[in-house]
């Protein structure tokens, strides 16, 4: 009984436990079906391929079904970087436990959010759990798998750029998805999740290459879709990372694919966009952008601080960001002269460098009404280096031509200039003010309130020297700039000499200030035509004429022609001019050539014309108003000559030198030939091209070791400017042994000299260096040996000495 009762009681307790568990399960299930919807993450913005390609935002929930009547812009607010993006929303749809927000276009942004209000309820009026602002994944590409079709299918293989997110769309919720790397070890198994039909594959940290995607139920394992992950190489480079709030931020966006649509955003230090633009890359995959730092998108002035430029590819969502850009407060506009003291001779160029701060334009004014000269200009710092160097031609202050100029290779610009007050002749020596003001004040007005003033000192010009040099026209060639002259000087092809061989170049080195402006010789070096013009019209006159024409005869003058015989090279910065006359092309004004078969004494006269003739280049106080300034140089145009130095004969050996002298210019290459005379066998011809040295000598070496002693030859020396070659005759002679080796001593005993020499009756002076005799030795007895004299004794002593030397 008791046992039965106990058994019965145990059965009843077990039944109650099972029933209680079952009752609890039923209660939980009922609560879940009609309970609280909970947002568990993974909201995604993608193109819903199964929904006719409509861009949507899927917001999945668990634990309940959302009441569609509680869904609206106010309860599901779409945000882009914190800004309300509800303008994009077209419709809301609730299905399969998820809210689908349909938008009118793809919102290519990685800063999308959805703000879920706590007013959202389930169909059983339960409030939503976990409301608030939630991040949205942007998937720029969608792969649709239709596993529920009668014939399950997979999409075609596709490509995705690294950094983008691919939406793998299925037709059922909670679908298993596998992604596996083809050429790497990546492997992932997951699912779309509860109440979601989308699985996202983020390629940001994936290697370049192929990935296989398999969706459960879509097809068998042999028919899987591949995603080929590639590198878009999206990049942004900013030209200057340090700018002021009055500058612009400029740079270049680039990618390996052209024609792509990108958003370019200027972000502040908080990551908020203050300026944005949407552009298409060109066919080369590039775009040059520019942001004005003075104005943000809302019209406000950009604050100082740190900024970056973010670029987003709108199709894939791939984004990149620039290095930090520091925007600082712009300094006040200011301009200054780099040097406040500027000096040169009147007639030359003045050089002035203007330094610009927070501006790229400046107005310049030289002189004043009281000075009797005014020259204004507006310049622009176009290369952005913060300075502009200008040159003022003081010669042009009298003729109305442009006064201001820049270097020929300068990137800066003279916007405008004028010379409203001109001088009547060459500007006077003295001090002048040179003013500068920031901005374009207009050249008609000039500087109104100067930011800086420089003092310009113009000194009297002068002629300081006239020197004569010579050079070879064959070796120097066509001289066209200062570099050609300096190179010839460095290499000794132009040497100082007052004697010039006819056919060579007569190089006059003129040192004279005040002509740089008239010859426009600051940026130009070849000023031949300008010199000829001044020589013809004034204020200078250069003549070359006979120095000694003979009694009662007027001197003949050379006709200087810029086309044939005259070249002028300027070193304007150093007030030096090289006036080069080709004597081989020179003629007198009567038409006769400069004689090449005789010596002609010439006189060069460089004259600066007096002020009474209408020129103001002669320094006041040094010359009267009717007195010219003359500088005279005498030199000789001589018959070219080459001589061969004696001896003309050579030895039958190598290294035989033939040399000589010449009055032809150093650096000239001579033509030297040594040829056998008729009847010499075997015949020979030896050639060389010796160069004339700076001292007028020349030489060449030949090998005569294969020639015969007695061979006769002709030495022929020629040069282009020689009327006829120089010839001399020589003969190969026997080589002379120059070695002086010490001979072996003669070991044979010489025959005794039978002739007894006469005894030397002169008693020699005693040797004061003779050492003291040994006191133990008896004094020697003076004897003589028959048949041997003093000479024989000395000979024997010498032989003994030589033998001792040999043994040593």
Automatic annotation (TrEMBL):
Subcellular compartments: Cell membrane; Secreted, Cell wall, S-layer
Coiled coil start-end: none
Composition-biased stretches (Low complexity): 732-744
Residue ranges, compositional bias (Acidic residues): 745-779
Main localization, broad class: membrane
Segments passing through the bilayer: none
Region feature (Disordered): 727-788
A Pfam family that the UniProt record links to this protein: DUF7827
Residue ranges occupied by any DUF7827 domain in the UniProt entry: 327-439
Domain PGF-CTERM archaeal protein-sorting signal span(s) in chain numbering: 785-807
Keywords: Cell membrane, Cell wall, Glycoprotein, Membrane, S-layer, Secreted, Signal, Transmembrane, Transmembrane helix
GO CC, any one term: plasma membrane
Highest taxon in the source lineage: Archaea
Family: Belongs to the halobacterial S-layer protein family.
UniProt name for this protein: PGF-CTERM protein/surface glycoprotein
Record organism: Halobellus limi
């Amino acid at each position: 009984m008791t046992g039965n009762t106990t058994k019965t009681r145990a059965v009843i307790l077990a039944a109650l436990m099972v029933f209680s568990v079952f009752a609890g399960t039923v209660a939980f299930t009922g609560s879940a079906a009609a309970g609280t919807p909970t947002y568990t993450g993974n909201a995604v913005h993608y193109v819903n391929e199964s929904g006719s390609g409509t861009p949507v935002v899927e917001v999945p929930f668990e634990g309940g079904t959302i009441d569609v009547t509680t869904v609206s812009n106010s309860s599901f607010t779409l945000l882009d970087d914190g800004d309300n993006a509800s303008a994009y929303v077209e419709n809301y749809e609730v299905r399969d436990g998820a809210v689908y927000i349909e938008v009118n276009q793809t919102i290519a942004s990685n800063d999308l959010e959805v703000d879920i209000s706590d007013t959202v309820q389930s169909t059983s009026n339960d409030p939503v759990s976990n409301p608030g602002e939630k991040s949205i994944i942007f998937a720029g590409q969608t792969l649709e798998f239709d596993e529920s079709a009668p014939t399950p299918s997979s999409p075609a293989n596709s490509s995705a750029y690294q950094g983008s997110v691919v939406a793998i769309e299925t037709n059922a919720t909670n679908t298993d998805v596998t992604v596996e790397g083809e050429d790497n070890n990546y492997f992932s198994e997951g699912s779309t999740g509860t109440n979601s039909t989308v699985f996202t594959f983020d390629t940001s940290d994936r290697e370049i290459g192929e990935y296989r995607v398999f969706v459960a139920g879509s097809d068998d394992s042999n028919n899987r879709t591949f995603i080929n992950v590639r590198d878009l190489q999206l990049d942004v480079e900013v030209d200057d990372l340090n700018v002021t709030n009055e500058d612009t931020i400029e740079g270049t966006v680039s990618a390996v694919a052209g024609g792509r649509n990108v958003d370019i955003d200027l972000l502040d230090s908080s990551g908020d966009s203050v300026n944005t633009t949407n552009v298409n890359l060109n066919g080369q995959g590039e775009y040059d952008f520019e942001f004005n730092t003075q104005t943000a998108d809302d019209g406000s002035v950009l604050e100082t601080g740190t900024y970056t430029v973010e670029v987003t590819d709108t199709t894939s969502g791939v984004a990149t960001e620039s290095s930090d850009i520091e925007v600082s407060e712009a300094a006040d506009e200011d301009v200054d002269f780099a040097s406040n003291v500027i000096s040169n001779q009147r007639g030359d160029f003045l050089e002035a460098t203007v330094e610009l701060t927070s501006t790229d334009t400046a107005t310049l004014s030289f002189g004043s009404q009281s000075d009797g000269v005014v020259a204004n200009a507006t310049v622009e710092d176009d290369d952005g280096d913060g300075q502009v160097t200008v040159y003022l031609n003081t010669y042009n202050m009298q003729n109305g031509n442009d006064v201001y100029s820049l270097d020929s290779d300068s990137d800066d610009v003279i916007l405008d200039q004028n010379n409203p007050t001109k001088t009547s002749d060459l500007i006077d020596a003295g001090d002048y003010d040179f003013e500068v003001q920031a901005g374009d004040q207009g050249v008609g007005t000039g500087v109104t309130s100067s930011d800086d003033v420089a003092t310009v000192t113009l000194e009297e010009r002068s002629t300081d020297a006239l020197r004569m040099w010579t050079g070879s026209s064959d070796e120097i060639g066509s001289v066209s700039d200062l570099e050609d002259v300096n190179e010839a000087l460095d290499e000794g092809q132009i040497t100082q000499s007052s004697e010039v061989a006819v056919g060579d170049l007569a190089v006059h080195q003129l040192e004279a200030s005040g002509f740089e402006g008239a010859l426009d010789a600051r940026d130009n070096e070849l000023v031949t035509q300008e010199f000829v013009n001044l020589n013809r019209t004034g204020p200078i006159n250069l003549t070359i004429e006979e120095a000694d024409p003979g009694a009662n005869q007027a001197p003949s003058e050379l006709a200087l022609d810029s086309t044939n015989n005259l070249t002028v090279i300027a070193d304007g910065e150093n007030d030096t001019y090289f006036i080069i006359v080709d004597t081989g092309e020179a003629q007198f004004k009567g038409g006769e050539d400069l004689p090449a078969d005789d010596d002609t004494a010439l006189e060069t006269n460089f004259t600066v014309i007096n002020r009474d003739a209408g020129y103001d280049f002669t320094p006041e106080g040094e010359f009267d108003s009717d007195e010219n300034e003359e500088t005279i140089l005498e030199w000789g145009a001589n018959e070219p000559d080459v001589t061969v130095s004696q001896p003309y004969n050579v030895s039958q050996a190598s290294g035989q030198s033939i040399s000589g002298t010449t009055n032809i210019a150093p650096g000239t290459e001579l033509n030297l030939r040594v040829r056998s005379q008729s009847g010499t066998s075997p015949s020979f011809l030896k050639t060389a091209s010796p160069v004339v040295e700076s001292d007028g000598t020349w030489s060449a070496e030949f090998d005569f070791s294969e020639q015969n002693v007695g061979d006769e030859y002709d030495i022929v020396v020629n040069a282009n400017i020689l009327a006829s070659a120089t010839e001399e005759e020589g003969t190969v002679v026997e080589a002379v042994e120059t070695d002086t080796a010490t001979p072996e001593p003669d070991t044979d005993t010489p025959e005794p000299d039978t002739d007894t020499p006469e005894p030397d009756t002169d008693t020699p002076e005693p040797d004061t260096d003779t050492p003291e005799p040994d006191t133990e030795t008896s004094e020697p007895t003076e004897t003589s040996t028959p048949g041997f004299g003093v000479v024989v004794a000395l000979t024997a002593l010498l032989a003994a000495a030589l033998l001792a030397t040999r043994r040593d």
